[in-house]
Each structure stands twice: as structure tokens, then as C-alpha cells.
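Task: fold both queries, return C-alpha cells.
Query 1:
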Amino acid sequence: MTCMWQEIKGEPYYRFQTDEPKIAAKLKRRKHFEQCSWGLNCPHWIFVSRYTRPSKARKALGILTGRPLKKDSEEDVYFS
């Protein structure tokens, strides 16, 4: 599963978390994504990126995964 959320409401920084090695490899190749965390004993990567609008961050998540997005309205997290 890959998910995305805004770090602080109103700020342009978004976190992308995945447990899929293919998605992590894509994010590592992109220059606008910076890896900020990873799992030592499990496949787990978190990247941070900057977007001017939430709609652009959602679009990037959809392009990365190639799957439809879903929203957890309680946590304000998008996942695919």
C-alpha cells in the first residue's frame, strides 16, 4: 500500500509512504522526492516532497501507483 498525507495543514510539504519496493525505487529516482525514513527489518519507505496544491500531490500519487485513490476522511490520508 502507498499512502500520502500533508505534514502540516496549510504547508506545502507532503509525505509519501510505501511498502512496495517498485514504488520506492520510482521515488528514489525522482529529484523532487527526498527519502526521510525507511524500515530496517521490513519493507517501509517514507519520502517527503513539496507541492503547491493538494490536488497536485494527489495527482502525483495516482501517477506513481497507477491505481485509483481512496481517502480516509478521519485521518485525512489518501492511499492506493
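Query 1 returned. Query 2:
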Amino acid sequence: MRKNSVKNTRINGEVLKELSNIIRGEIKDPRINPMTSVVAVEVAPDLKTCKAYISVLGDTQSQTDTMKGLNSAEGYIRRQLAKTVNLRNTPEIKFILDQSIEYGVNMSKLIDDVTQADEAKHVEE
């Protein structure tokens, strides 16, 4: 995989910002969790496709509902993105559920549990 150019990096940042604004403020779908955030965006160099990594704070049912809502609103999101970001082609957006934040929180909790158990063990001795 080739390294992103400065132009592509700038486009990724702009699309990420606008996509976050659209999801947070303009979509009225009740399936979409209010604690939904866009973690990263990868726009292809030809500006035809875009992968948007979405993080949802909640249970698995909430995550699946949010992804269904985003996929059904893809046309509207793409149209709004075309109005706000001036690109030659408006990319077709593919939403991907990103669970890295949830994984990190879970690992941090496990580490805290182990350190607390270790401290309690040393206090007993």
C-alpha cells in the first residue's frame, strides 16, 4: 500500500470533519445512537470510494442498529457531503464499525482489575 500524499491526507481530514458534523447534527434517524463518532476516514486517491470507520458507544444491538441506519442514510449523507466539500467526485461511502476504542477501554479495565488484585495480595502479606 502506498503512502498517502499531502492532498489525500488533507481530503481525509476534511471529509472526516464534515462527516462527523452530518452524522451528529443533520440525521434524524432514531436507529442512530447519539454517541456515534467517526474515528477515521480513508478516501481513495481517485476519490471514488471512502471507508468511514465508525465507533458507537453502547451494546451490540445499538451498534448494529446504528450501522443499519447509517447504511440506509448513505445517499443523504453523500449528498450533504457533496454540498459541503468541494471535490471533483463525491466518494461512495462504506461504513465500517470500529471497535478499537471499546477494546481499549476493556483492556484498561482488565489491567486495573489485575493491579488492584495484586495490591490487595501485597497488603494481606
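Both queries returned. Flag for query 2: Residues 21 and 108 are 29 Å apart (CA to CA).
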